[in-house]
Design a protein that fits this description.
Length: about 260
């Protein structure tokens, strides 16, 4: 065998090894991309479910329920593109299509917000919803106008969540005989509304200012009652609690 032939065989072998390496690397890269895409779709589908379960009932309207089902179906179909034949995704596609064709009435009832931690969890879920809707526009599920509509809906929900927190914590303070703590919560609510710089909230600001003044009067009466045994505080607390209950029935969405 001539040296030229041997050299050719060696060069050919090396070239074959290089080609095999390039193909193997490409296949591995494609496999990793599919795995990452599948994991992303799975995580986004799970996020849709978490949002459905955890956002307030007054935010979770039938229209929003329908939108989230559309988003979920789009994500599941993408999931199947990367992981064909996945039994979990296939089953969820069928279930989601059935829910879209036969929507179920909503019957969830909101629990009262009793702490800042609870309000924070709701706020985080609303922010997740905002991001999800932004991605839905990018994916072509909704258009710009629909995104703007839902952005406004979420903004109202965020404001309502904050005000519910201030109101609930103020009421708790009143019930615990701490009117000055209630006054502080009303101050926070007023500052929050003023920061929005929205003329539509003028009536709400006026309402909270009245509550703030009432809490201040109760605080003074409370301090006097500690020294003189004045019983007028109980009557004042009852009046404020009645006002709070009436306020609860009027949501930000009524504006």
């Amino acid at each position: 065998m001539s040296p030229l032939l041997i050299g050719g065989l060696v060069a050919g072998g090396l070239l074959l090894l290089v080609i095999i390496g390039i193909v193997s690397h490409g296949l591995e890269r494609a496999r990793l991309q599919r795995a990452r895409a599948t994991a992303e779709m799975r995580a986004r589908v799970r996020l849709v479910g978490d949002i459905e379960q955890q956002i307030p009932a007054k935010v979770f309207t039938p229209d929003l329920q329908h939108l989230l089902l559309r988003i979920r179906l789009n994500l599941l179909e993408k999931w199947l593109q990367f992981d064909r034949g996945n039994a979990e995704a296939t089953q969820q596609v069928s279930l989601t299509r059935e829910q879209l064709n036969n929507p179920q009435p909503l019957s969830r009832i909101d629990a009262d917000i009793t702490s800042e931690a609870q309000a924070k969890e709701i706020r985080l879920r609303l922010e997740d919803l905002h991001k999800l809707i932004g991605q839905a526009q990018t994916d072509g599920v909704i258009d710009k106008n629909e995104r703007q509509k839902w952005t406004a809906h979420i903004r109202k929900a965020l404001i309502s969540n904050a005000l519910d927190m201030f109101q609930s914590m103020a009421q708790q303070a009143i019930q615990q005989g701490k009117p000055r703590m209630a006054k502080l919560q009303y101050e926070r609510a007023i500052a929050y509304l003023q920061k929005q710089n929205n003329p539509a909230f003028a009536d709400l600001i006026t309402q909270f200012k009245a509550k703030h003044q009432h809490a201040e009067r109760l605080a003074i009466e409370h301090e006097r009652a500690q020294d003189s045994g004045n019983t007028e505080l109980s009557a004042g607390i009852s009046v404020l609690e009645a006002e709070d209950e009436a306020w609860k029935k009027k949501a930000v969405y009524d504006d």
